[in-house]
C-alpha cells in the first residue's frame, strides 16, 4: 500500500458503503415507530467499493436532544451487533468476512428493550405524548460496518418519527 493509499484509509476511505433498506417494513426515510413498541427491526446492505475485511455490523437506535445552549445530548435506546461473538446461524457468511469490489452482503437486525416513555421522562419531558413532535428531538437508527484497518466505520443513518 502506497503512502497516499494509507492516508486515504486513515481519513476514512473504508472500502465499503452501508445502506439501510427498510425499518419495520417501511421506507427508512419515513418510518413511523409506535411510542409503546419496544423492538425495532430493520434490514441493510453493505456494498464493497474496494477489497476489504468487515469485522462486524453494529446497530444503534438513538434519540438526540438539542438543548437551547446548542449542546447535543444523545441517548442510545437499543443496540444490536453481529460479529465473531454474535454469529448469525443460516447466513451465507460469518465474521470476519472478506469482500471484493462490487460484493454485496445483506443483514438484518432486531434491537429490543426500547422504552420511549421512560427515555422521554429522563430527558425532562413530563408528558411523553407532548414530546412526540418536539422539534428539539431527533430519533434515528445508525448502522455501522466495522472495517479492518480503518479508524472510521462505514455507516448509514435514518431518522424516524414516533407516533401514538
What does this structure look like?
With 164 residues, this protein is mainly beta. The protein has a single domain, classed as Immunoglobulin-like (Sandwich), CATH 2.60.40. The chain has three helices and nine strands; from the N terminus they run αβββββββααββ. The strands form two sheets. Strands 2, 4, 5, 6, 8 and 9 form a six-stranded mixed beta sheet that branches. It has a three-stranded antiparallel beta sheet with strand order 1-3-7, with no helix packed on it. Strand 8 and strand 9 form a beta hairpin. 24% of the residues are buried.
- Structural class given helices, strands, pairing? mainly beta
For the biggest sheet, the summary is: 6 strands, mixed
- Please state roughly what percent of the residues sit in beta strands, choosing from under 5%, 5-15%, 15-25%, 25-35%, 35-45% or over 45%: over 45%
Task: Report the strand count.
Answer: 9
Q: How far apart are the first and last residues' alpha carbons, in Å?
A: 53 Å
Give me the CATH architecture, please: Sandwich
Q: What does the average pLDDT come to?
A: 89
CATH superfamily: Immunoglobulins
- Helicity level, as a percent range? 10-25%
Number of helices: 3
CATH hierarchy, class: Mainly Beta
Order of helices and strands: HEEEEEEEHHEE
**Number of folding domains?**
1
Radius of gyration: 18 Å
Shape: elongated
Low-confidence blocks of residues: 7-12
What is the CATH third-level topology name? Immunoglobulin-like
Amino acid at each position: 500500500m502506497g503512502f497516499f493509499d494509507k492516508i486515504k484509509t486513515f481519513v476514512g476511505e473504508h472500502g465499503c458503503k452501508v445502506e439501510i433498506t427498510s425499518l419495520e417494513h417501511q421506507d427508512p426515510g419515513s418510518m413511523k415507530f409506535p411510542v409503546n413498541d419496544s423492538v425495532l427491526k430493520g434490514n441493510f446492505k453493505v456494498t464493497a467499493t474496494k477489497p476489504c475485511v468487515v469485522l462486524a455490523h453494529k446497530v444503534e437506535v438513538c434519540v438526540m436532544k438539542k438543548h437551547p445552549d446548542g449542546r447535543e445530548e444523545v441517548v442510545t435506546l437499543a443496540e444490536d451487533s453481529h460479529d465473531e461473538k454474535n454469529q448469525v446461524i443460516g447466513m451465507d457468511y460469518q465474521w470476519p468476512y472478506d469482500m471484493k469490489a462490487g460484493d454485496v452482503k445483506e443483514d438484518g437486525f432486531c434491537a429490543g428493550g426500547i422504552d420511549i416513555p421512560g427515555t422521554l421522562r429522563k430527558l425532562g419531558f413530563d408528558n411523553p405524548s407532548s414530546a412526540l413532535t418536539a422539534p428539539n428531538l431527533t430519533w434515528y437508527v445508525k448502522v455501522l460496518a466495522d472495517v479492518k484497518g480503518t479508524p472510521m466505520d462505514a455507516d448509514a443513518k435514518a431518522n424516524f418519527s414516533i407516533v401514538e
